[in-house]
Structures are given as C-alpha cells and as structure tokens.
Amino acid sequence: MRVPLLVSLRTGPAGTFEARLPRIVSFGYGCRGEIPALAAEYGPKVCFVVGKRSLQASGALNELLEAAREAGLDPVIFDKVEAEPLVGTVDVVRETLLDEDCDVVIAVGGGSVLDVGKAAAALVDSELPTAEHLAGAELPEDGLPVIAAPTTSGTGAEVTPNAVLRDPNTGAKASLRGPSLLPAAAIVDPQLTMGAPPEVTAHSGLDALTQALEAYTSLGASPFSDALAFPAVVRIGVAIRTVYVDPKSWPGRESMALGSLFAGIALASARLGLVHGLAHPIGVEYRLPHGLACALLLPHVMEFNLPACGEKYAVCARALGVGETGEDLLGWVRQLLPQLGVETTLTDRGLREMDFPKLVPAAAASGSTKHNPREAGEEDITALLRHIIDPDSPLPELEEHPA
Ligand SMILES: [Fe+2]
C-alpha cells in the first residue's frame, strides 16, 4: 500500500500540545564561540561540567577555558562525570556550585555530562540529597541557569527538561523531570562532535534515531513534534552510516547534530515509547550503554508496534528511499545495526525469562511506555521479551487499533 506523505503532516485536528524550549537554541559550525558572552549575562563565576577525557584530548576544553577567561569569566571545572551517571556525582557538583558560589553551569559533553550539569544546577538550593529527588521528592522551582553544548549527536539533552541518573543503592535508573531542568541555552556546534569515536557515534546516533522514531509515533505526537521528528528521522537515517565510516564528514556531522537536536525538541513535547520504557531496566540489568540498549530493542519494538503505526513507519521508509511500507522500514533498521558494528543481541547480553519480574513492571510503569503507539501492559511486554528470546513465541495480537 502506498501511503501519502501527507500522513506525516496531520492535516486533521491539531489537538493540544505544549512546547518549552531553552531561551536560546543556537546551531552551526563555530557557534560554541557564543558561550562566553552568554555565560557573562548570568555572572562571572562559571562551572564547566565536562567528561573525563575526550574534550581535554581534542584541545576543545582549553580553547573554551581560554575564551571564558578572555571574556572576564572565572571558571571552575568538574571533569569527573562517568557514563550512566550516579546520583552521588550530582551531589558532588552541587557542593562545588555552592562552595564556589557559581552563577552559571556550562555543561559540555555527551548526554551523561549534560544530565549531571542540569541536575546539579536544578538542585543547587535543595536541602535533600539527589537520591531522594530521584525517588520522587519534589524538585525546587528554580536553580542555576545551564548552557548545554553536546559533544555527541544522541540524547538531545541540551533541549530536554529531564536528567537520567542511577542510584547504586536501589539499582534504579530513572529521570528527574521538571521545568527547572531545561537548559537556558542549547549550543549545538557540530564541530564538537567530530572527535567522537565510531562506537560512540554509532550508539549515540542510534539513540537519536530511536528518539526521532518514538517521538514521531508517540501517542503524544502533535503537528509541532511531527514537524521536527519526521525530518529528524530522515536527517539521521541518511547520515548515520556516513559519520560511522567517515567521522570527519562535515555534512554528515551537521546532519546528525541537527537531527538529534530536532528529535530532542520533539520528544520533550511528544514523549517517547516502549523502547525507552524498556531501555532503562534492561540497560541497568545487563550493563548496556543507553544507546546500545535502544539499538538492540528498536527492531523488536517496531515489530510489536507495526499494527498501530505502520503508516508512519511507511512514510519514513519512503522518505529515506528504503521501501514503501512499515515492514520495509523495519527491514532497513535490521540491516543498519550490523553496518554500525552492532552485532550483539539482547540474548547474547543475558536476557532471560527469570529476570522478567524485575524488568516487566519497571517497563510497564514508565512514562515512555505510556506514550507508546500500541498499548503495552505487563502481559504484552512479557510476550514481547519472550519473542525476543524465542522468535517462535508469538507476539500478542492487536485487539483494537488505538486510532
Ligand atoms: Fe534515549
């Protein structure tokens, strides 16, 4: 069946939607040069939150520090953010912000770095440890402003009002979510992503692709989010192999950065779906980086979702030139993974039925799962996970189209 491209434009009722954006979203090669002047608007004492290595190795951190000092700023640096960050790391940054009386946080790094910067800035005035907020304690209304500059094209954390953290004491991996977590400025300079190694490029890019597809097909999708999520799928889909094989491709890095930015804005408004609902518990249980967990789940969840959102998948397949149907898009995703070095499977990584009691309730309760285009209760998720382990175990039939 040939699906008209207009499906993507939602020519029917617009429904209701809300969009909250950073005060400034700046994009393009060289736009990181705007950071010192932006920071100076908030005050001279700035805290750079960065990762452990790559920004230092590329010389970009020195360049940023020099520019900050030239602009009259007084920087302190926190450079101990780990992958899949812990609540305790946020507590340490909060202490630094208070001890140094900082005016603004400048977070430059991958999704983990941006999330730590955002969480620490939002909680700077809280009396409670970060773990209690992750467990549900209310967030303060205001914190410090954050200037967020991503060095990977992945999470879109520079434009989202949430931060994903882990609590080693409870084993929980969850999101802090609220308006105070939204950065004041998003500075998306594709040049900052040039140094990402191929594996990081592949995993973060597959996270961005998943986010674009999930925002596009989410129950919370609107004309606003579609206008960003659909081109995000196309930009990322066209460029992801290019940047994997040619990390210095300027047009490829630009397309990925723009796609992940668009996907981030779209998901902040539309929310996500079952891949992200499952990626947190599965990532924690089998120690998978977030992007890899998403990549391994994506084709299985797409197969489950096909009866509910096949038309939108078909629109993406046509736009990418990979076929005419939703099944064609699924086939393209399946063959894309090994081309990006993703040869492993969830079963290889340990997925087994005895872990379902830990995985299924957490996935079913997730806000992302509640926005999945096909309703996914505990029985459905159990059947899906069984199907991943044993393809002969059937997926549940779709009883009713959710319209
Ligand atoms: Fe993600």
Q: From the coordinates shown, what is the CATH architecture of the largest domain?
A: Up-down Bundle
Which structural class is indicated by helix and strand composition?
Answer: alpha/beta
What letter string, H or E per element, gives the SSE order? EHEHHEHEHHEEEEHHHHHHHHH
Helix content: 40-55%
Walkthrough of the structure:
- The chain is α/β, with parallel strands linked by helices and 403 residues long.
- The chain has two domains: 5-10 and 197-389, Dehydroquinate synthase-like, alpha domain (Up-down Bundle); 31-188, Rossmann fold, CATH 3.40.50.
- It contains 15 helices and eight strands.
- It has helices spanning 35-40, 54-57, 60-70, 87-99, 111-122, 130-134, 198-217, 223-245, 250-270, 274-286, 290-320, 326-339, 356-365, 367-370, 378-389, and strands spanning 24-27, 45-51, 74-81, 104-109, 146-150, 162-167, 172-177, 185-188.
- Strands 1-8-5-4-2-3 form a six-stranded parallel sheet, with helices on both faces.
- A hairpin with a 4-residue loop joins β6 (162-167) and β7.
- α4 packs across α5 (111-122), α10 runs antiparallel to α11 and α11 packs across α12 (326-339).
- The protein is globular, with a radius of gyration of 20 Å.
- The model has no long low-confidence stretch (mean pLDDT 94).
- The protein binds fe (ii) ion (FE2).
